[in-house]
Amino acid sequence: MAYTTLGETGLEVSRFCLGCMNFGNSEPWMIGDETQSHEIIARALEMGINFFDTANVYSHGESEEIVGQALEPYDRDNLVIATKVFGRMGDGPNKQGLSRKHVFDQCQASLDRLRTDYIDLYQIHRWDESTPIEETLHALDDLIEEGKIRYVGASTMSAYQFTKGLYTADVENVERFVCMQPEYNAVDRHEEANILPVCTEEGIGVIPWSPLAGGFLTGKYDRDADPEGDLRAAADEYTKQRFTDENWAVLDVIEELAEAKDASPAQVSLAWLLQKDVVDAPIIGPRSIEHLEENVAAIGVELSVDELERIEDPIDPRWPAPRKD
Q1: Contact 15, 3 (CB under 8 A)
Q2: CA torsion 324→288→4→185, rounded to 10°?
Q3: Angle between the 34-46 and 289-296 helix axes, to the nearest 10 degrees?
Q4: DSSP state letter for 228
Q5: Which of the 8 DSSP states describes residue 59?
Q6: Best exposed site among 116, 177, 191, 205 by fewest CB in 10 Å?
Q7: Alpha helices by DSSP H, 52-145
Q8: H/E element holding 51?
């Protein structure tokens, strides 16, 4: 395993972060077997992954519970645990958002589920239009002062919102976001026209989610197959919106390079991300140990400048991103 520092911090993280959204029982596509989830986490640790990302809303806390149980026997000092706050966690008022109350309540609930005294990276899952960013930043800063969290990060927002958060933290003299978690992969490149330039300029760590575009970049979908009778029909609506001529052209190049390099399309796709200077640790979400091992092996796949350009050529990144409601 290779390691890097997260943005301009001194925090050392593995080049891959294990995404834990799959752990739980709330959706058919998730890993319902808790034992299997523990086995994937154990294998990730054996392979040198020290970075784990979850969120309070993943299976309404069940993901955090599984991660906490699986990691409890290991040396906490060697682990980097990340989770998120924002989403609705119950009925009634004060059960969603980034108010001081909700942030404090959910931080403690996450600590309890994760069976730990502190969270390494606590991220706001979305921007909250209903709460002044000053209130949120001061709440996060106070949690750092209390020793409950170590770093703060953010996920999925406009460049204006993120820049406002960074500027406000500087003005208020509180801890600023050190990390951004955007959607980013070889076909979803809209963040190149939005948040990634800010991250580069401000020294922000980047840990992309959906690095394989919901499975599209693994090559498992067939462009020419009957969309009513195969895996294309089984794809979720979010993934189906990726079935465009431009994206299929990207996948054609990736599959050609994979064959030439004796690698899988997933490995070439992940290698493309790893060679982006702005990217620290893509968040992979394997549903089996085999997928985990395949993904991690992408560290050994090298792409030339010409090959990187061939992958990127069919798409012209733009913002806003196409709607995927």
Answers
A1: yes
A2: -20
A3: 30
A4: T
A5: G
A6: 116
A7: 62-71, 100-114, 133-145
A8: strand 51-53
Is the dihedral angle over the CA atoms 242, 248, 249, 251 positive or is it negative? Answer: positive
How far from each other are the two terminal CA atoms of the chain, in whole angstroms? 36
Cβ distance 243 to 234 under 8 Å?
no
Q: Are 189 and 155 in contact (CB under 8 A)?
A: no
Tell me the C-alpha distance between 316 and 27, whole Å. Answer: 34
Percentage above 70 pLDDT, the chain:
95
- For each of the domains in the chain, give its residue range(s) and CATH number, in order of start: 3-181 (3.20.20.100)
**pLDDT for the residue 29:** 73
Q: Encoding tokens for residue 225? A: 């197959």
Contacts of residue 7, Cβ cutoff 8 Å, sequence gap at least 6: 178, 179, 199, 203, 204, 205, 206, 280
Q: In whole angstroms, what is the distance from residue 143 CA to residue 147 CA?
A: 6
pLDDT in tens, 257-269: 999 999 999 999 9
Whether residue 233 contacts residue 227, with contact meaning beta carbons closer than 8 Å, is answered with yes
The answer to whether residue 154 scores a pLDDT higher than 70 is yes
User: Has 160 been annotated as catalytic?
Assistant: no
Reported as a pLDDT band with limits 50, 70 and 90, residue 320 is confident
273-297 burial by CB neighbour count: b if 16+ within 10 A, else e? bbeeebbbbbbbbbbebebbebbbb
The type of residue at 167 is Y
pTM of the model: 0.94
Among the options 3, 58, 151, 160, which is catalytic? 58
pLDDT digits (tens, 9 = 90+) for 75-111: 999 999 999 999 999 999 999 999 999 999 999 999 9
Whole-number Å distance between alpha carbons of 79 and 74: 8
pLDDT bucket at 231, cuts 50 / 70 / 90: low
For tokens 């799959």, the residue is 22
